[in-house]
Amino acid sequence: MKEKHDVFERAVEHTVRVRYSETDKMGIVYHANYIVWFEVGRTEFCRAAGFPYSEMERQGIMILVTGVECRYRRSASYDDDVTIRTRMGDAGSRGLSFFYEIVRTDDGALLAEGSTRHVFVDRSGRPVTIPSAIREAFARFVAPEGPGPTTA
Amino acid sequence: MKEKHDVFERAVEHTVRVRYSETDKMGIVYHANYIVWFEVGRTEFCRAAGFPYSEMERQGIMILVTGVECRYRRSASYDDDVTIRTRMGDAGSRGLSFFYEIVRTDDGALLAEGSTRHVFVDRSGRPVTIPSAIREAFARFVAPEGPGPTTA
Amino acid sequence: MKEKHDVFERAVEHTVRVRYSETDKMGIVYHANYIVWFEVGRTEFCRAAGFPYSEMERQGIMILVTGVECRYRRSASYDDDVTIRTRMGDAGSRGLSFFYEIVRTDDGALLAEGSTRHVFVDRSGRPVTIPSAIREAFARFVAPEGPGPTTA
Amino acid sequence: MKEKHDVFERAVEHTVRVRYSETDKMGIVYHANYIVWFEVGRTEFCRAAGFPYSEMERQGIMILVTGVECRYRRSASYDDDVTIRTRMGDAGSRGLSFFYEIVRTDDGALLAEGSTRHVFVDRSGRPVTIPSAIREAFARFVAPEGPGPTTA
User: Fold this and answer.
1) d(CA A134, CA D120)
2) Which of A24, A79, A90, A106 is catalytic?
3) Out of B28, B78, C61, C98, which residue is the most buried by the measure of CB atoms under 10 Å away?
4) Is the ipTM of this complex over 0.95?
């Protein structure tokens, strides 16, 4: 996992409401669903950065997940609003990382935090260099002179 | 939905164990997961009939779902073994139906029953006639002189 | 399934964005996820009617699903916005039905329609009469003199 | 995450077949589903060790997930059989870890590996000491003089 200092400050926030389907018999959100929320956060980060992931796929570029990690702090419950705060890590030439905090929207309590690692692949699944248009869009987006937190 | 007399007797049975992820905060299996189990039953039916669905897809034939219906009788719980009993309905030239019973494996209690309707489509999503090889394999499999219930 | 004339006009609309996790290898939304969206629509209907389902559960009343039915018209894709339009059917003393249309938000194309049937149960799973406060709140909400479509 | 030398050799293996619902539009298994398979492996490990998790819950003991981590090596596809190989890490007085390898059953190719961390809680969610009966059953099960790999 990347060190914390490699994470850019610029965060994109997106809120989802907990579905009944996301709970389990313990009465709280089943832990694997946080990994799905990470994906939702990533999608909204790419959109906010000007490169919707659906657009990348249309251009034949896919972002494969090579690693995921999550630490759970407090549980989320049915019908809670939870906010996914997504940041990007330093992108290399072929991969990048995202960092996430899941907070309860009402009171900001930290529910979970984690990260995902990715490589770029083409339609046949072969690793490729990040297209420069995407790399530059991301770089501009996370540049320190950019605006503050973004809500997608 | 097709009338009951259009359903062939030949059944394929397959057992799955209820996962924690499939439960919800009511303490029982979340209702949409039965629809996933229908898919598991359909997959095993096609394999038992000699035409694994993965093989159909490799040949460019996909079975789209156009309708689904389920009636819930009793609930299933975490770690229960449940048996999916799948039967085929009369196939037309472009579509077919499957019928399902979900029973608790231990005591045979009926948990749910339902059906799905399908059309065959090609890779571009256009409806196509069922390839004759598939139609004939299915017809032989459900023929009355065939063997009894099959466990996949 | 209830006849169409038993469905109240008053609709509650709620929009969700298709997650990557909701797609399958056919490239479109996996069919069982529409059943999950029905649940989301039901949750928002109850909230709009003044009786959030989470509140019902705190009072010891649960709405069990006894049947579900869905017809698929067109497929939804990753990152599409889809609007769930939920209506209530005539409630009996112990059960009720909901009716749903899933439309693509952008152009209003109908993707799927269906219904769910429910009974009210207590914490031990025993069927109970609908509490009068809930029944009256729902009745007021769907009364013809009430306002038009609601967005939750 | 625990160091490798803290992991007991004794492994429990359990095979599942990839469902269509578990794939995504990239054509392979959606990454969060491996976390669900970890849960399946954990369930079978506890059963093999003589303490089914459903039995623990009946006794009022729940195993909460406090962390999860997964590294993806190769993708799994629809209808593949995948084997979940689960090992236990050194248990402390209030928590324990599990380690997982997901391999393609046919050729043994490593698809993913990861771990989960847990604490024991009571019905109200408060951390508790691991009951001695459970701790001893697990200790006997992983003892070096025990038998080799177990298939559940």
Assistant:
1) 45
2) A24
3) C98
4) no
